[in-house]
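For the sake of transparency, this paper describes our internal protein records without simplification. An entry from our holdings is shown next, in its original layout:
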Amino acid sequence: MSDFLVMIVSVLFVLGVMVLVHEWGHFIVAKSFGVRVEVFSIGFGTRLWGYKRGDTDYRVSALPLGGYVKMAGDNPLEDRKGDPDEFLSKPRWQRVLIALAGPAMNIVLSVILVAGIYMRGSKQPAFLDRPMDVAGVLQGSAAQKAGIMPGDRIVQLNGTPNPTWDRAQLELMSTLPGHTLSIVADRKGQELPFSVPSAPSVEEDFGYPQDHLVISAVSPGTPAERSGLMAGDVILKVNDIVLANGAEFPPLVEKFQSQPLNLEVQRGDRTIHTQIRPQEVSGPNGTKRWQIGVLRTGDLVERRLSFGPAIVESVGMNAYMSRQIVYVVAELFRGNMSLKQLEGPLGIARESGRAARQGAVELLSLMAMIGVNLAVLNLLPIPPLDGGHILMLFIEGTIRRDLSVRVKERFVTVSMVFLLLVFAIVMYNDVLKLIPHH
């Protein structure tokens, strides 16, 4: 199957499932409150296919960029009969729950998907369950600037006693950029407090644990391939410098640059020695760096969770993703982040195709991430999003009367113009990313 066809099929599957679950949430809660649902549509625009059952027309429409549930009497700008099965005839608290049901179902699906991935199991770093014994710190990292040193044991992290490296990852993911982490480290029996600003990785914030440098892949035509390095090799020493962790290797390569590196390598039961000369390559921003052409990992173990722990881990991961999305939205409104950094429908299609080619786990992970995005963004207080409906219901509940049709109409019109403008900018940036730049 061609890459283009894989991309089309995968994005239709991903968006189709996400939209179906979202709209089903609105649908099932509306029906439970006795609201007459006239249309349940996947996609917008012209009806392509469907069937009618009871009062509801279940359909697939021409534009597959979303979907909707059309409830009787749900538009205050249209004439309505005032029947008890109309949406606007229901109490405000019921209408709020109907609006919340769509995003809630996306979150529930994301929790289930991530929990399923944890229960299926995967290979993960062996050090994750170990105490936080710091084998080394990166030069210039947040950990080094804070004063953390090799040999320290982190005995408290944000109030959690005796954290593991796995716990450190969760704490880091739960901390928004610009915030700090509170650390207490044991140094030769003396407990020292540290405050470390949130950084992109565990190595940057806490240092790194004792671990091996295991080669997971060797790129063709690189110095590593020419020197005979193979996947599965463990690099023990570089120029007689013992490696405590694979994180120490890239700085050493940069330090020696084009000078030959004498490697001591463990291959199965044998120890071999080889010499390799790094090559200079251009980074994504035109920066130069030195490399030998390997992908590295560490010691791995199979990690599979039972149902309960998988749900707990999944809830934590989804909470982290939600916080990150809220942070991004806040930064956009503050002007600290550009719309160019957002992915639109074309970007989602591209990522769906990439995930589908990598396997079911990657595709399900992408679906979970998109589901959380869909839930959080739909709760923004902007009509016609669910959050906009909830905001208007909150205002009406506070003033104890309905807003006038004229006010609602202006509110919806301004919000629609804003959303269409954002969509146009994101689509424009999506197209630009597809055009080669020289």
